[in-house]
Design goal:
single chain, 408 residues, alpha+beta, six-stranded antiparallel β-sheet, 17 strands
């Protein structure tokens, strides 16, 4: 008879209890970066949508390491980040019991995609949200009150956050209801923050104004849901021997006779996935610019590099599976991120001071793959495919029909 170990590490981490479905769909920021008044006023987070994954080729730049100057192929995730609109300002005061909302000021004009968020059923609603509030910005009494509110914010508040919403109409999604969140302003004095927020009301903020190339960010979101699962899948416990009565994907002993109840540390069947998670230190490899018109031509070379000058956009051949095309600004981060395609993700500035060489490394991409992610991708661009495959049958038929029409 073989030797049996008497002790082993437990299966599954207790730090993530309770393993239940997240109450929120959008990732919530539970800690903000430390404020530094010496820096200029800046945002500390941004919202994006997971589009899909691809791979890149780059050269490693880590002096005095063996792997330095060698090429490596790495997986990257593309996060679609269209500009966000600022629609409000919130001021917080410090109390013995923590932060308390002091004043909230909304903009004069709020779009329908934002107002949809305040309705359970927009189609059956009266669509009257913020119609009375917006009149504050028009009459003299209201303007005086708003000036008073801004002044009291500058005087009493300790923390200023802005209310922003995403632009769903720029995304290839069916959803029309925008995602709204509060984002903390860091840097500068309180008065400078309030003035900055006041100036940005109803204006767009792009991801280039929040993050930069080679920065380490934290990604907050909800993982992919897997439904109700047994202990083998949910806790990765060992399967019982083959001939076990009444199944083998079980836990053999769920505790002693006394205490006469099942402990919370015992692996049990239940929900797996759709958990709220924060993943730190995701390095930004590229912040891509949206497709735009320049001198009457559409510029879509946001997947080109100094080594690969092919004029191509980040969208792979046939689009990202289960997502579509990425025509807005995007963030390319190393590795994978939580959630399904289309999942809304919160990108937050890192809370840590980075000293590792891998964190401070300058990233220069040599090649970004844009072959089809659905099946065997052979071609980087439609032009490359056309050059290899030759003209299509329907094109030959059309050409023949046009020559016949010209001759007649």
């Amino acid at each position: 008879m073989s030797h049996r170990k008497f002790s082993a590490p437990r299966h599954g981490h207790m730090g993530f209890l309770p393993r239940k479905r997240s109450s929120r769909h959008r990732g919530k920021v539970k800690s903000w970066p430390k404020d530094d008044a010496s820096k200029p006023v800046h945002l500390t987070a941004f919202l994006g949508y997971k589009a899909g994954m691809t791979h890149i080729l780059r050269e490693i730049h880590r002096p005095s390491q063996k792997m330095s100057k060698r090429e490596t192929v790495e997986a990257v995730t593309i996060i679609d980040t269209p500009p966000m609109i600022v629609v409000g300002i919130v001021g917080y005061v410090d109390t013995p019991r923590g932060l308390r909302t002091f004043k909230t000021i909304f903009a004069e004009h709020i779009s329908d995609e934002c107002r949809r968020r305040f309705y359970k059923n927009w189609c059956k609603g009266k669509k009257k949200a913020f119609t009375k509030y917006s009149k504050k910005w028009q009459d003299e009494a209201g303007k005086k009150q708003l000036e008073k509110d801004f002044a009291s914010m500058k005087k009493y508040c300790k923390i200023i956050r802005i209310i922003v919403h995403t632009q769903m109409r720029l995304l290839p999604l069916r959803q029309k209801k925008a995602h709204i969140m509060e984002i903390q302003l860091n840097g500068g004095t309180i008065a400078e923050k309030v003035d900055w927020a006041h100036e940005k009301l109803e204006k767009q903020i792009s991801v280039q104004n929040v993050f930069h190339q080679d920065e380490n960010v934290d990604v907050i979101g909800v993982t992919k849901g897997k439904g109700f699962k047994g202990v083998t899948s949910r806790w990765h416990t060992k399967k019982l021997p083959r001939k076990t009565h009444k199944g083998l994907r079980k836990v053999a002993c769920i505790g002693a006779w006394h205490p006469a109840r099942v402990g919370y540390t015992i692996a049990r069947a239940g929900q797996k996935g759709y958990f709220h998670r924060t993943e730190i230190n995701k390095k930004i490899y590229r912040i891509g610019q949206a497709l735009h018109v320049e001198d009457g031509k559409v510029v879509k070379n946001n997947a080109s590099t100094n080594y690969d000058l092919t004029n191509k956009s980040i969208t792979p051949m046939g689009g990202f599976p289960h997502y579509g095309e990425v025509n807005n600004d995007f963030v390319m981060v190393k590795g994978c991120v939580m959630g399904t395609k289309k999942r809304v993700l919160t990108l937050r500035k890192s809370l840590l001071v980075h000293t590792k060489r891998s964190h401070l490394e300058q990233i220069e991409l040599k090649f970004i793959d844009t072959t089809s992610k659905f099946g065997y991708g052979h071609f980087q661009t439609p032009e490359e495919k056309r050059a290899f495959m030759g003209p299509l049958k329907k094109e030959l038929v059309q050409a023949k029909a046009s020559t016949l029409a010209d001759s007649s």
